[in-house]
Amino acid sequence: MINIKAQVSGRFRLKVYRSDGTLKKDTGWFDNLITNYGLNRMASSSDYLLYCHVGTNNTPPAYTDTSLAGFLHGAGANGSATHPHSTSNPTYRSIKKVYRFDAGEATGNISEVGISRKSSSGDLFSRALIVDSSDNPTTITILSDESLDVEY
Predict the structure, then answer these.
(1) pLDDT tens-digit profile of 89-106?
(2) pLDDT (0 to 100) of residue 88
C-alpha cells in the first residue's frame, strides 16, 4: 500500500464595484470549508470549480452541505490562472479563479459564498460565510447598479 498525504484548501475574496468602476468594498481573503461532496468530486472529475454561488443565509458551513442555505445567484468563471507544481518539498499546485456577477445579478444582502459545478443551486464544492477583518460573520450589501467579483 502507498500512503499519500494530501491537503486541500481554498480562500475567498469579494470585491464590490460601483457603477463607475470604483472599488466600494474589498473583504480581503478568508477561508472556506471544502464539503464532502467537493472532496469526492475532486477525486473523480475536474469540473468542480465552474461556478460561484452567493446567498443570504448565515448558517455556519458543514461538511455535509450540498448547496448554499439561502442561494441567490450563480456566476461562471471569467478566467483562471494555474500555477505549476512547486519543485521543492512540500510540492503544491494552485489555481485562481475570478467569478463576475454583473450589475443586478447579486443584488441584496450577501452573507454566504460557495463554489459548484452547476450554475443553479446544488453540487457544492466549498462554502463559507463572509467574514470581516476579525473573522466575524458579516453581510455585504450590493446595490442593483453594482457588480461583484469573487476570487477563489
Answers:
(1) 777 778 889 999 999 999
(2) 75
Count of structural domains within the chain: 1
Domain containing 95 equals 11-151
Please report whether residue 5 resides in a domain: no
| 120 falls within a domain | yes
Q: Single out the residue of 35, 34, 28 nearest to residue 14, CA to CA.
A: 28
Single out the residue of 68, 62, 59, 78 nearest to residue 152, CA to CA: 78
Q: What's the pTM value of the predicted model, to 2 decimals?
A: 0.89
- In 3D space, the residue among 96, 117, 116, 109 whose CA is nearest the CA of residue 144 turns out to be 109
Assign 40 to helix, strand or coil: helix
- The torsion region of residue 134 among left (phi > 0), alpha (psi -120 to 50) and beta comes to alpha
2 located within any domain: no
β partners of residue 31:
11
15 or 87: which leads in pLDDT: 15
Could you tell me the pLDDT band of residue 69, with boundaries at 50, 70 and 90? Answer: very high
For residue 137, is the peptide bond before it cis, meaning its omega torsion is within 30 degrees of 0? no
For residue 130, the model assigns a pLDDT of 99
Residue 65 gets which letter from DSSP? -
CA angle 51, 142, 126 (to 5 degrees): 30
